[in-house]
Structures are given as structure tokens and as C-alpha cells.
Amino acid sequence: MSASFVNLLPMAIVAFGAMVCIATEPFVADKNKQKVLPWVASAFLVLSAISFVFVKVDAAPLFGFFEMGALRMVLSLAVLLCAFLGIGGLQVTLAREKYPAGEPYGLALLATVGVLIMVQSVDFIPLFVGMELAAYPIYGLVGLRRKDRNANEATFKYFVTGAVFSVVFLYGMSLIYGATGTTHFGGKVLAGRELLYSAGVLLSSFALLFKAGAAPIHFWVADVYSGASVAVTGFMAAVVKVGALAALGALWMRSGVEKLAPVMIVVAILSIVIGSLSGIAQKSIRRIIAFSAVMNAGFMVLGLVSKDLSAMYYFLVTYALGSAGALAAISAFSGKNDEKENLDDIRGQGRRRPLEGIAAVVCLASLAGLPPLSGFLAKFVLFSGVVSSGFVALAAFGFVFSIVAIYYYLRVAISIFAPAEKTDDAKNENALSSSTYFLLRLGVTVTSITLVCLALKPILFQVKTF
């Protein structure tokens, strides 16, 4: 079994697409930037997805840095679909605001490359490169609205806290290198350096938990999500979380530090409680999804303590698709500068845009864990896995709070199709051509169908190593 460079083809295609978008952007007329560049970016995402046909899942690790198995392939495809949704949402948002530039599409593709690297990494060096490659373009995407005070504040907070936790990750990595003499995951610990190794794994894990938005290091999530555009929020909530939790799962499985399980349990409990209860009082959909991200990070960390991580990764895929799909659909009727994205403003918007409305409701119902969607099955297998690992009380605790969280998901879904008075918004938004909405509608339709299909044929297989 030999290593295969073909396994790098999907991320290479997306990276080339990012370069094409950035290099051609100055030569496209301002009025055509939102008409041409989203299609170019989407075409490269589709080509990248097709290239997985050539991937060799049983190949040896490439330089000891990258691995590609069936689970990593599924996670990568989920990342590409979420990125496609992000591009569709960005196109509608930027066209509506007559944004005079097209660099956001290149930035979104670069961030996608970074997350694809994180998913395939089995070494701390490429993982760190992937984390930074994902983070820097997102700083730019969060701050797209340069004259918006909330966007500037969100960018500043995200950049500063992101820099701090990058340092934390590097420090943890250096401790692990000192304990094992290698930067590979799961290196053999030298005699007498077990404590040093555990400290390194703990620090590195906390840096990844920061990226995932887990408590108690979730303080940036609500402000950053509400400062970014709705489309960018959906992209962050899905794509970045897949990369962070995929890397955390790989680190957890290979490090063999079961004694850190109590720390993870505390993180899971805090995330579930804070996310569930804080989301109830919110009216801004971006803040609701922000606290949903905190709560679901807790559920996924809970999955880490179970013996089989397949349930956690299944949950991760359904959560990422549900979040990205719901926010991409809502970006279609959130108005200029996303000023109409709270529960009162979106009343009845699903009646005017039924396809986007139905897609948003399907995604929200999956996030809420309602049958027959895949979100229900994901929570069922996650809690079953926790019970079979001996944590019955913990599973019961998570189940109770998942019922509490249903309330705020349903509030959004009900508002979308609630009766509303006629306004002039429809006249203003119809100024956009139907082709501007095509990518978004295609993305949310595919995502909704995928969430249904994943319930019929779940991607559950035993994860022995990752």
C-alpha cells in the first residue's frame, strides 16, 4: 500500500479555483462581478467533488501528514456542499447590496481549502497550516461590510481571540513534540513525559474547541456570528466546525489520553446548558444559530467520550448541512445589510419564496432533531452511543436539553410561514434576476434532499481509527 498524490487533487482544485477567482476579479466589470465569479467558484467546487472518484481511500499516509479514508471523504464532501451553499448565499447578499468587488468568492474557496487540509491532517504541522489558511480568509469575510460597526467589532474580536488560541495550539504542539519527539498524531510518549504529553494534548484540544465554539471558550461566537452577514455566518457555522471537530476527533482517538475524558464531559455539559438556555431569549436568527452552534458543539464533544465515534461524525455532518442550508435560505429574504433577519422581520417570507422557505424549515427541523429527518437519527445514535459507554445520566441530560432547544428552532420555522402584512420589500428584492438566486436555490434543494436521504441511508460505519 503506497501513498497517492491523487488524494490531494480535491483540495488542489479548490485552491486553483481560489487563485482563478482572485486573479480574474480585476478584469471583470463591477456590474458583472456577482454574475460571473460565483459561477466560477461553484464550478471548481463541483469539479473538486467529482475528483473524489479518483481518490484512493486505502492509500498510505502522504509524507505522514495526510490520510484519506471513507470517513474523511464523507466529511470533505460535506465541506464542499456547505461551501457551495456559502457561495450561493454570498452571491444573493452581495448582488442585493451592489457590492463592487468579487474577492469574497476567492476568500471562501481559500477557507474551504484550509478546512479540507484540517480534515485530512494526521500531523500537527499541516493541521496548523490548515487552521490558519481557514481563519485568515474568514477574518476578511466577517469584515466585508467595512463601514458597519458591528462587522468591524466582530472582525477585531475574532482576529484577536483567534490569534490567542493559535498561540495556545502552538504551545500545546511544542509540549507534545517535547514528549514524543514527533509532530505526528499518536507518537510514542517518552518515559517520564506522560504529564507533559497530557498537557500538550489538553492545550491543543482547547484550541480546536475554540474553533468549534464550545464553552467556556464560546464568548466570541454570538458577536462574530451576528456581525458577519447571514451567508458568511452559515459558512462559518458549518465549514469551520467540520474542520475543527474532525481534527479534534483524530487527535483524541490517536492520543490515547482517556484520563482527559472528565474535562471533555465538563466542556460538553457547559456547552449544552449555555447554548440551549441562551438561545431561547434571542430574536436575531444569527444569534440563535450562534447559540445553536455552542449547544451542538457540546453534543459532539459528548460523542467523543463514547467508544465509537461514528455517531459523532454522523451528527457533525447533519449539523453542518442543517446550519449551512438554513442560513443560506434565510439569506435570501434577510434584506439589504441583513437588517431583516430577526423573527418578526422574516414573518411570512416563506410564502413569498416557498422553495427557500421550505428548505429552511427542513434544515431547521433536522437541527431540532425531528423525525423523519437525519437530525433525529443523529441525536438518537449519539445518545445511544453515550449510553452504551456507561454514561446513562449524561445521555439523559443531553436528551432533556435537546428538547428545550427544539423550541427556538421551531420559533424560526413558524415565523417563516406565519401570516404577515404586505410591504415594499418584495418589490425591492425582485429587482434581482432569477439567475442570481439559482445557485442558492440549487444548494438548498440538494441539501434538503440530502438531509432526508441521510435518514434513509445513514453514513454510519464503525470508526476504529481516524
TrEMBL record:
- Name the predominant localization: membrane
Alphabetically sorted, this entry's keywords are:
Cell membrane, Membrane, NAD, Quinone, Translocase, Transmembrane, Transmembrane helix, Transport, Ubiquinone
**Bilayer topology annotation:** Multi-pass membrane protein
Domain called NADH:quinone oxidoreductase/Mrp antiporter transmembrane: residue spans = 122-402
Q: What biological processes does GO assign it?
A: ATP synthesis coupled electron transport
Q: Under which EC number(s) is this enzyme classified?
A: 7.1.1.-
Q: Where are the transmembrane segments?
A: 6-24, 36-57, 69-90, 102-119, 125-144, 156-177, 197-221, 228-254, 260-281, 288-305, 311-333, 354-374, 380-410, 438-460
The subcellular location is:
Cell membrane; Endomembrane system; Membrane
Q: Describe the function of this protein.
A: NDH-1 shuttles electrons from NADH, via FMN and iron-sulfur (Fe-S) centers, to quinones in the respiratory chain. The immediate electron acceptor for the enzyme in this species is believed to be ubiquinone. Couples the redox reaction to proton translocation (for every two electrons transferred, four hydrogen ions are translocated across the cytoplasmic membrane), and thus conserves the redox energy in a proton gradient.
Q: What is this protein called?
A: NADH-quinone oxidoreductase subunit N
Name the lineage: Bacteria, Pseudomonadati, Fibrobacterota, Fibrobacteria, Fibrobacterales
